[in-house]
């Protein structure tokens, strides 16, 4: 029996592979044709081989909340997600616009604060954000760039148009899955990739290295990737990117501030470090400046950074723009700095710190998705239509106690892509995290990490909550 999409049901959702009449969308023709030439057993064999490859390569993540084991692979689905060239052109333009405005916003709020003085963003909102770091006031990062690497989460609703779900501006993760998913699909369906005009992504490590070199003023700068260590959930990615770029992977034991510079311990003595791609959260970077209890930071690092003797990517302090309440103001931020309307809209957002919005949220909580301002990974969230009365009352209580800490959004019917479930294809909800590099200009990598909510009916795509991933094919 051959694999078939004949019984696939789009069920009223926007489907990325089939339109409402069941016709295959542009870019999927070659994949559908090849998939339906394969027997079900062969299709399953290829899927299992892909998952075995991930484990053999050590492409795993840690789940802190589970006691039975620290590592697991992120499930990969071998049915790709395809994005048409026209859709991508608009998305790319919108991401460049958004990153440009957010970089101007960060530079402003830590320096002149014009946007606060003009009342476009409430001052108390910034000053009450736990990610607004006072030691960064007056900071001027190298080349004026704050956000060198961004992973912006996008979703499609019922109309098929992309919307921004959230911005990840501190240490966005997942790019190693994006790169390895493409390598897996090259081996799994080489003939399909050969027939489909897919933009390449394999040069990401080279582009990342060039960006890190650009932000240093020194010729042939020494670059390192700073990791919290082997128990971090994204440790594989830290080691992978260091290896791909040909730079050292270091932790707190390898670096020291000495004679006004950050230096790396080597077998030949100290070596000056010029650029640090840090995969450590802002407040753990330097125990002398931020959290005094941090055991993974470098004492004195911020003094060297402020003196311009080392570059950090991303700059400390960027987390304030990750705040989900600040997210609601990004359309106004774009308008303020660029005089433009957002090319990619936000999801409609209710700010619980504003009285009218808060009243609406409390009265309609069963219809809404409620999120904590600074949580990530699918935690601190209530999905109203799938919640119990007890959960709704608990969140109402939390909102009333600390309205500043919550936003709410309508429950969006995320677009779906066919996934291999048991021995057949079923639709599952997806989002997309494209990666954007900001060095000598803003570059959007043509693809990204498509995350899949593998549990039937689930809208939560995070790997820590049972999600998986797909290769993303952006067409020429």
Q: Would you write up a description of this structure?
A:
This is Circularly permuted type 2 ATP-grasp protein. Pfam families: CP_ATPgrasp_2 (PF14403). Residues 80-453 form the Circularly permuted ATP-grasp type domain. InterPro entries: ATP-dep_Glu-Cys_Ligase-2, CP_ATPgrasp_2, UCP005522. This protein has 14 helices and 23 strands. It is an alpha+beta fold. It has a domain at 351-410: Dna Ligase, domain 1, CATH 3.30.1490. Strands 3-23-22-19-18 form a five-stranded mixed beta sheet. Strand 5 and strand 6 (162-166) form a beta hairpin. Helix 2 crosses helix 6 (175-188) and helix 3 packs across helix 12 (330-338). The longest helix is centred in the N-terminal third of the chain and has 25 residues, at 85-109. The two termini are 34 Å apart. The mean pLDDT is 93.
As residue ranges, the low-confidence spans are: none
What would CATH call the architecture of one domain?
Answer: 2-Layer Sandwich
Helix % is 25-40%
* Principal-axes shape call: globular
Report the CATH C-level class of one domain. Answer: Alpha Beta
**Which strand order spans the largest sheet, edge to edge or round the barrel?**
3-23-22-19-18
Mean pLDDT across residues? 93
Number of helices: 14
Derived structural class: alpha+beta
CATH fold assignment of one domain: Dna Ligase, domain 1
The whole-angstrom Rg is: 23 Å
Work out the strand percent: 15-25%
Q: The biggest beta sheet, please?
A: 5 strands, mixed
Record field, number of beta strands: 23
End-to-end separation in angstroms reads 34 Å
